[in-house]
Specification:
Layout: E1 2-6, E2 13-22, E3 29-60, E4 63-78, E5 84-95, E6 98-126
Parallel strand pairs: 1-3
Antiparallel strand pairs: 2-3, 3-6, 4-6, 5-6
Length: 128
């Protein structure tokens, strides 16, 4: 399964906020982007279902120097079964001069529902 989200769409990312500030005289910038991603995925399985999530962060950049991504579950639910919800990996990247957050999530249960997740991305960049 895969899901694409864009911070400019309020139905896909709720409570989006961004902070952009200069770091030094060399032109480096610090960018912080946060929000709640709405994935609304249902799984009915006794094995892990992997969900790839791609979040377009809406920030134009030149070169990505360093990054950190923090992700947490915001809303989950489960029927009457053993269940698993996890974030396996979070990666920040630049595509076509814009920041993206890539997530690999796993869900298991009969049934289980992954509704929303929280994210915060902190990056040091050379501006575009």
């Amino acid at each position: 399964m895969s899901v694409s989200l864009d911070v400019r769409n309020d139905r896909q990312v709720v409570g989006h906020a961004a902070l952009r500030t200069p770091l030094d005289a060399r032109g480096l910038e610090l960018i912080v982007v946060s929000g709640t991603g709405v994935v609304e995925q249902t799984v009915d399985s006794t094995t892990n279902a992997e969900i790839a999530v791609d979040v377009r962060l809406g920030q134009a950049v030149g070169v990505l120097r360093s990054s950190a991504a923090y992700v947490g579950l915001a809303s989950i639910s489960n029927g009457d079964s053993a269940w698993v919800f996890c974030t396996d990996r979070a990666v920040v990247s630049v595509r076509n001069g814009e920041l993206y957050l890539g997530l690999w999530l796993a869900v298991m249960g009969e049934p289980s529902f992954l509704h929303r997740f929280l994210f915060e991305v902190v990056v040091e960049v050379v501006p575009a």
